[in-house]
Design brief:
299 residues; Rossmann fold; 11 helices; 20% strand; disordered C terminus; binds S-adenosylmethionine
């Protein structure tokens, strides 16, 4: 790779937090009743590609990977109610500031506060980046010895003060973010999703997939990468990524029939995938609105 992927993703979404970027949008329909209390700025700066919020339930603890302006979190906050909680993780200060800007206003409207926006990398959910930054202020790195001490500090933080603990989350959601993670970290990203979920937990991920391998030229284009194209998963491999780390019952819940974009003859579309950490028990209640029959006739 001839460029720094993380830097181009950070810069693109820093700009996206300041000004609405129409080119980053992949039109998505949300249940409008949940949008009423969400300020226009948050609704406008939506860079998602699907709607994973439909698949969460009352009382759950939900983790949103790459929470951006917070639209998905604020929808989920209403769905999980005051007995549930929503944690949004993002590594971009501008996006975190934007998501926190209306937190109090929305809590006042709801009558409860159940959202928390925290700084972290979604492929390293143990590392609390706020604490790392604070430590670095007092301990600048100017030598290999200081680098070694820094790395040891990070390891200690991961172990003793993890940002997201093992087996602590009911539902991990994400909306158009996994593709943005650099290739060498993608496997670890799926390991992390698996690690943080409770045994009965599930992941519901909306992301961009493609139908063929990309050309090297496309992969090496920072604009295409930060625009959710170059890091798109090949659809069959996306499902495999879940299965490889141990997920069960990996299922496509939604798939755009018409591609969002076609570049060099390659189709890019949004899919929403659900995967359970463990096989759900037979009598587990149907927990999403994709049931095949009206609720009354369900067993
Ligand atoms: C395409 S936007 C989607 C935002 C939000 N999910 C939505 O639906 O509007 C991608 C977001 O993920 C964040 N992001 C990208 N890579 C990340 C990473 N490795 N760790 C944490 N956040 C990341 C970006 O800062 C940005 O806010």
């Amino acid at each position: 790779m001839s460029y720094d992927i993380e830097k181009s993703v950070l810069e693109r979404y820093e700009a996206g937090a300041k000004e609405h970027q129409p080119s980053l949008c992949c039109p998505t329909e949300y249940d409008s009743s949940f949008l009423e209390i969400i300020p226009e700025e948050i609704i406008a700066k939506d860079y998602g590609c699907g709607d994973p919020t439909r698949y969460v339930n009352e009382g759950e603890t939900v983790l949103d990977l790459g929470s951006g302006a917070g639209k998905n979190c604020y929808i989920i906050a209403q769905k999980v109610g005051q007995n549930g909680q929503v944690i949004g993780v993002d590594f971009n200060d501008e996006m975190l500031n934007l998501s926190r800007k209306y937190q109090e206003e929305i809590s006042d409207k709801l009558g409860y506060q159940n959202t928390n926006f925290i700084k972290g990398k979604i492929q390293d959910l143990k590392l609390p980046l706020d604490k790392v930054e604070l430590w670095l202020k007092n301990n600048p790195i100017n030598s290999l010895e200081q680098l070694r001490i820094f790395e040891a500090k990070c390891d200690r933080l991961r172990k003793e003060e993890p940002l997201i603990k093992d087996n602590s989350i009911d539902v991990v959601v994400s909306n158009c973010v996994l593709n943005l993670v650099k290739p060498e970290d993608k496997e670890q990203l799926f390991d992390e999703i698996y690690r943080v979920l409770k045994t009965e937990g599930k992941a519901v991920i909306s992301d961009i997939v493609c139908d063929r391998d990309l050309t090297l030229e496309m992969i090496n284009d920072p604009e295409l990468w930060s625009g959710c194209i170059s890091g798109a998963f090949r659809e069959d491999l996306f499902i495999k990524m879940f299965e490889n780390v141990g997920f069960n019952q990996v299922e496509i819940l939604a798939r755009q029939t018409e591609p969002w974009q076609v570049i060099n003859g390659i189709e890019f579309r949004s899919v929403t995938v659900k995967a359970y950490k463990e096989k759900p028990k037979q009598n587990k209640k149907i927990d999403d609105n994709k049931s095949c029959c009206p609720p009354k006739s369900c067993c």
